[in-house]
Amino acid sequence: MSRDIYAYRCRLCGHLHYPYRMVCRNCGENAHNEFDPEPLPKSGTLLTFTELYALPAEYEVPKLGLGIVELENGIRITGQLRIDEPRMGMKVRGEVEVVRSEAYEDFHGMVFFEA
Ligand SMILES: [Zn+2]
Fold first, then answer.
1. Domain, as residue range, for 61
2. What's the whole-model pTM score?
3. 28 C-alpha to center of ligand 1: Å?
4. Residue 106 maps to a domain
């Protein structure tokens, strides 16, 4: 099953927000929360990355790659990397997957692979 992560477009000025905000960052209006959800694109460019080795116990992996990706629409998102040798500037594609599991809940997030 393919899932999406949503950005929110201001109905007053059209500015796109991710993550969600109560008030538009561009026009400063929108006290009534008039935003239309719109799925984030899945393709983008890896801007920078890091690898974490000191992880909380619920991550059952030896290390975790984290990257900041600029998506096709210009929005930047942090996601996990499943790429053996990540390089800044490489093209990546995302999938929405379970990124963390706790006893009664799974958390979804964007995971990036080499495009
Ligand atoms: Zn606005």
1. 43-114
2. 0.86
3. 6
4. yes
Please report, as a single letter, which amino acid is at residue 58.
E
Number of domains the chain contains: 2
**CATH value at residue 76:** 2.40.50
- The rounded Å distance from CA 8 to ligand 1 centre is 10
Q: How far, CA to CA in Å, does 60 sit from each of 25, 48, 54, 66, 113?
A: 38, 24, 12, 15, 19
Which tens digit of pLDDT belongs to each residue from 64-107? 999 999 999 999 999 999 999 999 999 999 999 988 888 888 88
**Taking a C-beta distance cutoff of 8 angstroms, is the pair 44, 92 a contact?**
yes
The residues whose Cβ lies within 5 A of ligand 1, an ion, are: 10, 12-13, 15, 24, 26-27
Residue 45 three-state SS: strand
